Amino acid sequence: MLFKQKESGSVAKPEKSWLYAWDGVVLYVTQEHLNKSHAHFPALLQIGLGAQFAVTLDHQPRSYHDIVCMAPNVSHSTDSENQPFLAVLIDPDHELYGYVHALLQGRSMCSLPASCLQPLRCELVKLIAGTLNIAQVKQLLLRILKVLSAQEPVHLPWDVRILKACEYIKQQVPHSIPTVANVATQVGLSESRLMHLFSAQLGGSMRQYILWLKVRYALQLWIEGHSLIDLAFEAGFSDQAHYTRTLRRMVDFAPSILKANTVFISDTFALPQR
């Protein structure tokens, strides 16, 4: 494990949870983490900060890990068993995904020992305590990914037309939802070729990507203090219940749980032009 246990047998838990968010990345530090089976568009990095945590993949037995990196759209559940825990969601079109891609090497999941992150122990202690600002958290995440992947990726390993498609979609969502035909015209691909490349390279469909962008935008509005009713409509959901169902399905979080004991720290996401 990353941290030596106290005499009581466990690492001191943080009093609050901390959620840091910036464009393409959501980083969540909590005293405990338990969710049901779900799958989401971003890749996932999980780190047990007090002890090993349990991961259950569909149709596989429960297994215990120190550090797990998971590809996009892998159905799973996690139980930190009441120990401090770090989860990071990284969009597959974000530059940091280059490190994840190098780490996974084509696998859906890889597991690493806690010893990999011993050089960053002091910074991780500060992360648990919530004493880092968002600039420091960004730097720490970059250092974590560099240490784990042990290399410097040159660029994202995707077709430039797919990256262009992602940029176009982000400019539109949530205030306008582009059709596959719209996006295909923008990037010079047939609709069928675009859909195939998009899913094959990013690990999820364009529909999933658009839905995730709406969830991310709603999360930013939530951080800024908007009510659930207002943010649901602003982010393009039919109502509050639709937003809550989507959030549960994609990350298995209820908004009320996040709000209860979580400190939100964010860069302002680049908002789409109306």
Automatic annotation (TrEMBL):
It comes from the Bacteria. SUPFAM superfamilies: Homeodomain-like. Coiled coil: none annotated. Pfam families: HTH_18. Keywords: DNA-binding, Transcription, Transcription regulation. Residues 163-261 form the HTH araC/xylS-type domain. The keyword DNA-binding applies. One of its GO terms (molecular function) is sequence-specific DNA binding. PANTHER family: HTH-TYPE TRANSCRIPTIONAL ACTIVATOR RHAS-RELATED. This is Helix-turn-helix transcriptional regulator. It comes from Acinetobacter tandoii. The lineage of its organism: Bacteria, Pseudomonadati, Pseudomonadota, Gammaproteobacteria, Moraxellales.
